[in-house]
Specification:
This protein has about 350 residues and is an alpha/beta fold. It folds into two domains: about 200 residues, L-asparaginase, N-terminal domain (Rossmann fold, 3-Layer(aba) Sandwich); about 110 residues, Rossmann fold (3-Layer(aba) Sandwich), CATH 3.40.50.40. Helix content is about 30%, strand content about 20%. The chain is built from ten helices and 14 strands. It has an eight-stranded mixed beta sheet, with helices on both faces. Strands 11-12-13-14 form a four-stranded parallel beta sheet, sandwiched between helices. The protein is globular. The structure holds D-aspartic acid. The site of D-aspartic acid (DAS) has 11 residues, from loops.
Length: about 350
């Protein structure tokens, strides 16, 4: 039997469910504690045991990789998770991966996986805005939907996906936009599709390269550079910029006001940063739109970069990866245009 015929003959996909903590693993004192609760206390086996219908969707094995709120995720966790998923995806007896994850930085982790995993098999990252103990928790249905997507051939080749609130988002675009509501996850260009009555439906595709077409492979990355983010505000002085420049960063993403405007009080410190070998990436704190190169600031003159449409926290992930291969400003700028 060929591999394809064997897969067709098999009734259920084989999915590995990796637990890392977060609200989806949380527990509140009472059902009305929808937003105040202990995070990362339920094991991945506890979470799955609460969803007996999952057995009908896939043959599921579990792994508890971490048990932490995602605000605690750093580069060590990104690399460890990525390498573990990569080694699982290489196996012929695994069809897809679901990662349960805190929602706070789920968009960063998913984007990192999207750019570094070298497999067309589905990888779905899922969280919850309410713990399983809360009234109308979104955890069980989000997890159910995530398994549905990971088990589907339709999800092949679409990169890392984030499933939430019945929506399927590409990791490149999705951001957390709300502190407590269940529809917290938005993509500026809309979701790729939905999960409707237990079936994934896709309406569009990621336009930019990912996974097998990206230039990074998790197996070739042993460390990531420190990239900092500075959030601009009115009445700003350069103290915070100077502090971050002295912290060992290789690049700073400047989440500027509007279309990448940099206050006069800040420009000199960022010009100095570049002279010290630290890359400066002009972004925007607005949460939407593109930052135009050489418009609000003379990027060519200062040897700065712009983020294209990426929010600062996602630009940070992209810049960390870019710096594993490139240091030339022109090539780094191309990375932002391309991904
Ligand atoms: N505790 C936060 C986190 O782990 C919130 C969450 O999971 O929703 O990201």
């Amino acid at each position: 039997m060929t591999r394809d015929t064997a897969a067709a003959a098999r009734q259920k996909a084989r999915i590995v469910l990796i637990g890392t903590g977060g609200t989806i693993a949380g527990r509140g004192a009472s059902p009305v504690n929808t937003s105040a609760y202990d995070c990362s206390v339920l094991s991945i086996d506890d979470i799955l045991a609460d969803l007996p219908v999952a057995d009908s969707l896939a043959d599921i094995t579990t792994e508890q990789l971490f048990q932490v709120g995602s605000e605690n995720f750093g580069n060590v966790q990104l690399l460890q998770l990525g390498k573990r998923i990569a080694s699982l995806l290489e196996r012929d007896d695994i069809d897809g991966i679901v990662v349960t994850h805190g929602t706070d930085t789920i968009d960063e982790t998913a984007y990192f996986l999207h750019l570094t995993l070298k497999s067309p098999k589905p990888v779905v990252v899922v969280g919850a805005m309410r713990p399983p103990s809360a009234l109308s928790s979104d955890g069980p249905l989000n997890l159910y939907n995530a398994i549905v997507v990971a088990a589907s051939r339709l999800a092949h080749g679409k990169g890392t996906l984030v499933v939430s609130n019945d929506e399927i988002h590409t990791a490149r675009d999705v951001v957390k936009t709300n502190t407590f509501k269940q529809d917290a996850f938005k993509s500026p260009y809309g979701p790729l599709g939905f999960v409707v009555e237990g079936k994934p439906v896709f309406y569009r595709l990621p336009a930019r390269p990912h996974t097998v077409d990206s230039e990074w492979s998790i197996n070739e990355i042993e460390a990531l550079s420190h990239v900092g983010v500075v959030y601009a505000h009115g009445g700003m002085n350069d103290a915070i910029v100077r502090a971050i420049l002295d912290s060992g960063v290789k690049a700073v993403i400047y989440a500027a006001t509007g279309n990448g405007n940099v206050a006069v009080s800040i420009v000199a410190s960022l010009v100095e940063a570049r002279k010290r070998g630290i890359h400066v990436v002009r972004g925007s704190r607005t949460g939407g739109g593109v930052v135009i190169r050489n418009a609000a600031q003379p990027d060519d003159l200062y040897d700065w970069l712009v983020t294209d449409d990426q929010p600062a926290h996602k630009a940070r992930i992209l810049m960390m990866l870019a710096l594993t291969r490139e240091h030339c400003t022109r090539k780094l700028q191309d990375v932002f245009w391309r991904y």
